[in-house]
Amino acid sequence: MSQPPYPQQPGVPQGQQYAPTYPYVPQQPTTKPKKPWYKRWWVWVIGVIVLISFISQLGGGGDDAATTQPAGTTTQAVDGVVTEAPVADPTTAEPVTEAPAVGIGGTLTVGEVQYTLLDYTPGVTSLGNEYFNTTPQGQFVIVTLTVKNIGQDAITVIGDMVALRSPDGTEYSASDEAWAYLDDSPLAKDINPGNSLDAKFVFDIPVDAQPTVVEVSEGFWGMNTAEFTLG
């Protein structure tokens, strides 16, 4: 049995059939399939890092075993033979002892000159006699030394052979002018090899100065020095 035709609808030209309109059904988007986890890039990066770390540990293990040595020893190579020598423990090493101080009556050797400190007299207020004398700007200090030539050439006694030094590092030079007022001035006297003489070195220093060191040297050009300790 055939279906009867649809009745003519308003607004539709004569002779054209009305086509019914069905509801619009949107097209569902197609979903992209997910990659398996083992194909992710970060999985491969982590794997490479782990592999490199494992290989480096295998390669370094042999070196650690070869270089391990007992504590307190050091490796030495003599003529191609490797030996282990003990190393001194700084916590148990004996302390370095300083040389004992040398004071009045002691002897020091500097280069080719040997000194013996005989006397140290501070607080001198004048030198000379009633006709020929001088007074200090502060105080005169007289240092008496035996100077001996232990070299092979003659030496000359000069003021620069001796100096005084205070605890704060202040250094005082001998006064060549004050030497002239001594009864027997050793200024510019020569000493032949093997000979010695007693020489008084005069210093003009402040009244409140208290030197603690008598420094002796080889002379004007002498770089080596030694120290007598006062007090």
UniProtKB/TrEMBL annotation:
UniProtKB keywords: Membrane, Signal, Transmembrane, Transmembrane helix
Compositional bias annotation for Pro residues: 1-10
Gene3D superfamilies noted in UniProt: 2.60.40.1240
Comp. bias intervals (Low complexity): 11-31
Transmembrane segments: 41-60
Annotated stretches, region: Disordered: 1-34
InterPro entries referenced in this protein's UniProt entry, alphabetically: DUF4352, Immunoprotect_excell_Ig-like
DUF4352 domain: residues covered: 103-222
One Pfam family linked to the record: DUF4352
Protein name: DUF4352 domain-containing protein
Natural source organism: Brooklawnia cerclae
